[in-house]
## 1
Amino acid sequence: ALPQVVIIGRPNVGKSTLFNRLVGKKVALVDDQPGVTRDRRFGDADLLGMKFQLVDTAGWEDEDPASLPGRMRAQTEVSLKGADVALFVIDSRADLTPLDREIARWLRGQDVPVVLAANKAEGSSGDAGIMEAYALGFGEPVALSAEHGEGLADLFTALRPLV
Ligand code: GDP
Ligand code: MG
């Protein structure tokens, strides 16, 4: 089986854009357990010739803040089951949000390597956010632009030892 990379992050950071960028047209739509992880999408990704199964998660989109911790724990555990790498995506052009920090906290407690991707960094427009992202504790963030296809070589370099 292909190694599995699971894309994790709050809504609107560009997870699905990255998924589509790496999977291209070979997209499989998979119904998943309702109410636990909605709309997980699986696809065979090709990143500069490196192949892996990519999972796009959307389960945190309609999150009720009051139930956040418990729900997020369930989401994280289900999504990361069988994952070789968690690809944690943030928006490098926005300040880190409480949800970003909460996801980071949960990921630190999971037994899976984390690669941090600072998206929306086309033309180095996200420099400030990339510096802030160091503080999340996952090492050097990979600056990329899913929309413009920038930073993919750096993403390759970060993922290569883990898949
Ligand atoms: P998701 O909710 O994390 O899956 O995010 P989406 O992939 O749906 O993207 C949310 C918004 O961010 C959309 O308007 C995208 O066009 C935009 N977006 C995604 N990637 C980039 C990027 O690299 N640069 C910029 N500027 N916008 C992006
Ligand atoms: Mg999405």
## 2
Amino acid sequence: AGQPIKCTAAVARAAKKNYWEDALVLEEVTVAPPQAGEVRVKITHAALCHTDAFTLCGDDPEGKFPSILGHEAAGIVESVGEGVTEFEPGDHVVPCYQAYCGKCEFCLRPRINLCTSVRAFTGAGVMKADSKPRFTDSKGDPIYHFMGTSTFAEYTVLHQESVAKITKAAPLEKVCLLGCGISTGWGAVWNTAEFEKGSTAAVFGLGAVGLSVIEGCKIAGASRIIAVDLLDKKLEVAKKWGATDFVNPSKLDKPVQQAIVDMTGFGVDYSFDCTGNVEVMRAALECSHRGWGKSVVIGVAAAGKEISTRPFQLITGRQWMGSAFGGWKSKLEVPGLVDRYMKGEVKIDEYITHEMKFEEINKALKLLHEGDCLRCVLAL
Ligand code: NAD
Ligand code: DAO
Ligand code: ZN
């Protein structure tokens, strides 16, 4: 503790539209010691998520460069700053882009996350203690943080509000996924939608998020789960996860919402957008049940996009809702998700389609772009 650490990081020097073409630069960076209220973590495993690509390609209006991306990871505490009492070196942790302070009005309200304690700083890519980043490059110039996590680095510094301590028995190479995608899907079903046993669902987009929504619906006792994707090859995986029906909108002679209403009578009790496409969000709302259907937006739309529907859809009882990180109070609840995985109640391993060395991160971004990858985990 107390000393800067030199290590390797994958630096996003600038936005690059073709993010899959060697956009990240592996560089030696210096990671300053944690200041008051901060924790320095040795990242052992980092996965890639579309939000990293979204920022890297320049679509994220909050994106700041140069920066160190990455927000779905796990690691071990290396040292802690002044006043930090909840963590000590050697603790196993999952960094959480969605912070939890336990004191703000968001943290105090049940089932709501969106903590505001460090949000302004994480959005600006700096740490709260001095409004500066802890990373510098070989010239001594600053490199900004991303989502308060910056996990594409061998060491990172986190606000203590953005760290969840987990059991040392859990395999870090698996539970790193709980930092984003699959926690999001489960939480959207259990926290946001408050899914009731015996209900029906439609899930649009069958990446890791959509599949974890299917898994969440199945665990919640769904009677029917209609999986929707443009790729026929997703059919098999959707069935494996628990979907009962598969619809490919590109093979239909009518709008997908109409097809789902026709299949179900009055629509599904719950629908979920896991694509980020605003037309899909509309279809998801419109295939939800007249009178009580709930439609949850999970996908992140490109900057400037807007959703629309006829207000009649809402007058007739459908509810349009959404959540970030599945509504989980990260620091408080991620440890419990890890425990559920350890008890075999939820799956994680099956979402990991690729494993690589950290040095191959650009290859992993290419895989993400090509679409055959649910999750790729990098070992640091
Ligand atoms: P992914 O790219 O792996 O999966 C998306 C799937 O949607 C693909 O299978 C694709 O074929 C399918 N798809 C695309 N267009 C479609 C269409 N018109 N109709 C039906 N299917 C279509 O992505 P992912 O990692 O699973 O993430 C899904 C979305 O969730 C992304 O937008 C991501 O940014 C977002 N996300 C949100 C949160 C949150 O907290 N709200 C957290 C994590 C991820
Ligand atoms: O403003 O406090 C806030 C929350 C903003 C973060 C919302 C993130 C939504 C989804 C991110 C995608 C995956 C990391
Ligand atoms: Zn808070």
